[in-house]
Each structure stands twice: as C-alpha cells, then as structure tokens.
Amino acid sequence: MLRARTNHTSAVLNGEIYVVEVERYDPYNQSWAAISPALKYVSNFAAAGCLGKLYLVGSCAVKYNALTLQCYNPQTPGLWHCLGVITSPFIPKYLSAPRCATLHDLIYLIGDNTKKVHVYDPEANIWQKVVASPQGHGPTMVTQLALCQPSPSSDAHSPRLG
Predict the structure, then answer these.
(1) What is the pLDDT of residue 150?
(2) Which UniProt keywords apply (predicted)?
(3) Is the pTM of this model over 0.70?
C-alpha cells in the first residue's frame, strides 16, 4: 500500500483490489496506485465491485446519519459518480457496521444492528428487502464470493429469479 490505513474496506473489481479511501492494487504488475477519494466522506461503510463498477455504501459514524451510495467507474479514471442518499423505503436510514457482497450482479447489504438483508440491483437502480438472516453478521464479516461456472443449483437467493 502507498500508506498504512485503519478503518478501511476493500473490494475486488476487474481483477484489482480497491482499498477505500482509495488505492488500487494490480496483482499482475504488483503495484499500488492512488485514485481519487470518494465524493462524500464516509467512516461507517462497505464496498463491492459489481458490473464493472465499484460501489461504496455507508455514512459518517454519526448515529442515524443517512446512508449514501457512491459509484466509481474505472473507465473514467478519477471520477466518482454519487448516486445520492438512498431513499428506498426498503433500506434503513442507518446501518451499524454495514457489510456487502456481490452475487449474480446484485449487491447484498447487512448491518450488525439488524437481521434484515437488503439487495441493490445496479441495473434497475432499486433496493429490495430480501429474506432476513437468522442473525445479524455480528463480529463476523460478509464474504465476497466468486462463483466459477455458476449453476442453477447454486444455493443463493436471487430476487430476479424468485
């Protein structure tokens, strides 16, 4: 890394590792590069790579501060596109320690203050509440998954497939 960090998150996008606030690691060249910081400061946040873009969802560490969704497109280097404050009735205004993972081109989001699981569809730009988790993520983490040769028998919920 270009500098040591605490209170950060990371995500994989197009075979590169992004550490937010914000550096990119290219494992093929074994090099780190700085990219522009997010438009809106966040300290309680998660990141996910989905459909060729890096999504950052979170808030400042002020209790009940509204979540925002920001999007970074590596095709336009240095440019973040802020998608604004999440206003969907199915997403809470605040999540403690949010975590997210991408599966089947959808971003799944959970916080440790709730058992609810929310899913964001970037193509439709909508949030949905999906089946609740039996327990919040607590001290554990949501894991980023990479499926090789996904099959119809993959054991995962898909709001698109029902």
Answers:
(1) 43
(2) Kelch repeat, Repeat
(3) yes
